[in-house]
Predict the structure.
Amino acid sequence: MSAHAQVNALDHHHDDFGHHHKETFITKYVFSQDHKMISRQYMITGIFMGVIGILMSLLFRLQLAWPDHHFTIYEILLGKWGADGVMDPSVYLALVTIHGTIMVFFVLTAGLSGTFSNLLIPLQIGARDMASGFLNMVSYWLFFISSVIMLCSLFVEAGPASAGWTIYPPLSALPQAIPGSGAGMTLWLISIAIFIASSLLGSLNFIVTILNLRTKGMSMTRLPLTVWSFLVTALVGLVSFPVLFSAALMLIMDRSFGTSFFLSDIYIAGEVLHHQGGSPVLFEHLFWFLGHPEVYIVILPAMGIVSEILATNSRKPIFGYRAMVASLLAIGFLSTLVWGHHMFVSGMNPFLGSVFTFTTLLIAIPSAVKSFNWITTMWRGNIQMNVATLWSIGFVSTFITGGLTGLIVGDSALDINVHDTYFVVAHFHLVMGISAAYGFLAGIYHWFPKMFQGRLMNKKLGYVHFWVTAIGAYGIFFPMHFVGLAGLPRRYYTNTNFPYFDDLHDINIVMTIFAIMTISVQVVFLYNFIHSIFYGKIGPKNPWNATTLEWTTDIKHVHGNWDGPIPHVYRWAYDYSKLNKDETDYVIPGQDFIPQDLPLMENEDELNH
């Protein structure tokens, strides 16, 4: 059956699908198969995990700024690892490890993509739901289980995983290496294996839905850029995540079954272990084959969200739609060819290093195309400076400033000098972490009415949230570039043993003060978010005057999205600034946009008829 035939069949069965059977509390709010509810489940779980990850960063920032100070909060939160208010050195690396893991995988991958892919794909392509509601539900609950297991690893006797979020062997492969190499590392691997299963199920569902369930008239060239970004993200995840799964499986076998995939000639306390023939560099190749595409799995959905919001709130058609689509596809393809730039100091052949340098610098071209098109979309636009617009402009800013330093870490000759310093930390936090978080927040503010019965978040609190966060984020990570260039190494518990770094200590204090400020203002967001769910102002059906199909659905949610036939599509997603009638388009008086479901009209008489 063709895609359009499937859509028409769903239209004919509207009474069964639109209103659906009567649902209990469990089937509606817990084991829901409705993509909108699953979207909210992903979002709330992602926000909860984000709070934990951010609080971890506060703990180790306090340690870096005041290494000799006794903090009561360490005793309260860390127990035996924070006796007398002093952080145990071994738990410092564990906090860095779990912070990185939670933020990269559980917040910026599942939280961002799981929320907005689930919410927007069916609504924007004109589908009743995902291709498989059941697999969608299973995908979320696997994500939830993996989150629980990761959090449980914080409470094991020997401590959570402590090999860094990249879990390089031998620390991750030998249970006896350090305290965090024991049960905590095992739980980390189990959690990630389940997470990968969740991501693969979600990716398959997204791809099949986009390719097969588009409404009549919704050609690929009429898709909003959000949907294109979700499609490319799912394709990249489908290619790269199984590689990490294989690496995790081999790591489990090295740990528990005596194999030697990643181990060779290991000595512990003078004892020669039986491992031989393996290579830890093999693990680096497998990890980074996922690890660098993962950067784009994180950032691509944010790119799509920002493209949609900037076009809508600039009241202009997106500049260079086809170039934007081509750049998304180019980024997706090239992201699988650049993993080696993480390994320039691993003994890589210089010729191979030059190949990875070339592909890394090449991927800057489609990224620059997107940045140029965002700026050009805003140029001379009638910009509606609402909260979502501010987060989107903030995204463009951090993506450009963070991306420029990528030219340094992507060049083999330059990267060797800054590898494993705070320069790298500053780079990837700005270009990936902060930028993706801005995209996540922009999407929440923009599509909040679609998720919560037409309610709007408080605009004034949103402005406070944005400006304090934006200033604080640059206050943390901009100075970090300079301490990195000065040679300050990352992941060190304290630098007081190195007199060379004494002059940098005050900068660490400044960065920590900005971190405390930035983390504190997230309380404003949490209050605004929770309060607005129940008491937010009810907005109009289409509060942003957008053209895409999700705003044609009623504020009252039904399982099936449209309480009636699915609208057909007659035009692309960015018909803004249509102030005059021409031969094919009729503009409704007082509107500067034409919705995608408005038919092409020759004249006003035909419209009135």
Q: What stands out?
A: Residues 483 and 504 are 7 Å apart (CA to CA). Confidence is low (pLDDT under 50) at residues 1-18, 580-585, 603-609. The longest strand covers residues 267-268.
